[in-house]
Request: fold
Amino acid sequence: MNKVIALLSGFAHLIILSGITSCNNDAKYLDTIESLNTSFENSYDYSIKEIESDLADFENNELNTWGLRALPYYEKAVKIKKCSDTLCKLVDSLKLQLIKAGRGDNSVFSMNPDSKLNTIIANDLLVKTGVATYLKKQIDTAVQIISESDTKSNFEYYRKYFIEDKYKDNFCNDSLWTYKKFGIGIPLVMAIVNLSKIDYDISMMVLILEKEQHRISRPGCNMGFPHNGAFVFPRQQNPVLVGDRYEASILIYCELNDEIGRSVRDINVNGKTFPIIRGVGIYTVDATTPGEKSYHGIVKVKDWDSTEKAFQFDGRYNVVKPSAALDFVNMHFIYPGIDNPVSVSVPFIDKKRINLRLRRGEISGNNGKFNIRVNDPGPLTIYVEDKRNKGMIKVIDSFIYTVKP
Reply:
């Protein structure tokens, strides 16, 4: 009987020590990144529907009303959409390849649980074969085509953010881009999420510029879009991680920045007013609890004849709780008295911000690569922390391991 108990105890001990994380932490990590993937896919679908709806309105109204004046802008909008469609088809085909390699059919959730955390599959399929490099070149080409525009408007504000700033962050000419997105050490499910985010980022870029073409096809200053009078533009990734801040710009646009800046009187969201900068409302809120969030607002504008108009808008975003994955190099065990290398991954948190902390023992390393040294066997709690701006540190996750006797 004692031998059986000892065997079961040893088996439980092995479960705690083996794999990337313990079973419970595996589940938390997968819940986080699968929630991220769902959010990106839903946001992408929403953007595509908005683009198609706006193009249909373009065809039915502006082309009929303004004729040849509107035609070049419509053709530009169609060209932008076709370019993004081609790129997104490539991205979707790569996602399906990764899902099938993970023994799934057509979704992240269908993959084998063990395959989801595999850190080699994406590298073998995308990096080693050169497919990831090809994808990067197609992204560069698409962004160049999508962003071509000689117009000057309030959308310069968004073009700079979404094409210049965001492009540099997500698709910059970093020689390590392919490895950061799909290389060894990136769990398979995270590589798929990275592809879903490319779809989302490209679709948002197209939505912004397609609406710009729609606007400039009409002569004069036009207060609001054909469908909803005001446009909600998220200023960071969707979903938002718990502890971060959600920020969105609320835009009523016009060809004359100064004029619209003077005419916007008030922006109110859920009963609270928010600041206005050059006609753009800045809505911010702290993300404190996970889940789907929505808000409703009203923009009040003083028209040219001094009458006041109100445009309504709705926004939505998803908040998820971040979770980390730990991958021990030395046979998946923590040994006393030596350095135990470990890689740490947290979805969409820069590895430079990741920090480890122990209640006992020593830690060295950075950028997601650490060494843990503990002299005595026994239970060990490992805290994964996020080093934020101004010296702020937030605990993301914690793990309980047992140092092998």
About this structure: Residues 44 and 200 are 5 Å apart (CA to CA).
